[in-house]
Amino acid sequence: MANSRTKLTPAEYLRSILSILVFFFMLIIMTPIILLLLIFSLGRLSSFVVEKIAPLIVKPVFPVAGIDFKIKKHSGEIHYPAVYIINHSSTLDILTILALGLPRVRFVAKWQLQYNPLFFLLGRLTGQVFIRREKSDKAVQTLKKNVSRIKRNGLTVMLAPEGSRKHPGIIGPFKKGPFRMALDLQYPIVPIYFEGNRELSEGGFLLTKTGSATAHIYPPIDTSDWDLDNLDKKIDQVRDLYMKWAGVTEETNNK
Fold first, then answer.
1. Which of 129, 138, 242, 245 stands 20 to 30 A from 73 (CA)?
2. pLDDT tens across 24-51, in order?
């Protein structure tokens, strides 16, 4: 349920419920089509599904919910392959991530999403990566196992350095996993900042206020001079960018 800072009006509750129904309706309708594409292509259309069909599923949800969602590219064309990272503080992030339609992307998601049969089926068939975030050692091992597959197929990967939307502050502490993965893959890091998601929906369900949200896709960050010795410093520098975009300092972040 949304907290006091994002208290919804009755009309917003109704729009939210309708948007949830639209999302699952689109998901159910499109799932057989996705399965047929993946089966007949022997999995070769996985990227097409993520890039083209996933946005088709989620984009009708935004107008029903009363959300004006925009994508702003700060560097022209989107760079890939890369490790994309996002700030994560809202359930709404699920929709905005899928709406991006990023090229050849695979998502690193929490293990519990597989409890939904549709997410389990689609996630496994399209090669998404599910990790147990509460068990950091196993999460790191899972990421390492997928590095060779991602590199071999020229795939892009998206992760949330904060790990979970439930973290202290507007921008939570950054975990090392995404940055170690960038080192192992020898990929640049592309920061994506979701503006407005947190203000529209902080609850654990897709209940949202009406308003605007923007996905800011920033220029790639070169990691060619990164190593294990300077990794912590580099991570802090990237987190500082997110603090700047969020308009907070370390002192005001947790307020």
1. 129
2. 999 899 989 998 998 898 888 988 998 9
pLDDT at 132 over 70: no
Is 252 a member of any domain? no
pLDDT reported for residue 154: 85
Give the CATH number, domain containing residue 119. 3.40.1130
Confidence of residue 6 (pLDDT cuts 50, 70, 90): low
Q: How far apart are CA 250 and CA 194, in angstroms?
A: 19
**181 contacts 188 by C-beta, under 8 angstroms:** no
- Tell me how crowded residue 153 is: count the other CB atoms within 10 A of its CB: 13
Domain that holds residue 66: 4-246
The identity of residue 42, as a single letter, is L
Which residue(s) pair with 129 in the sheet?
108
Number of structural domains in the chain = 1
Q: Is residue 39 included in any domain, yes or no?
A: yes
> Which tokens sit at 64?
């029903």
Q: For residue 155, is it within any domain?
A: yes
At 160-170, the pLDDT tens digits run: 898 877 777 88
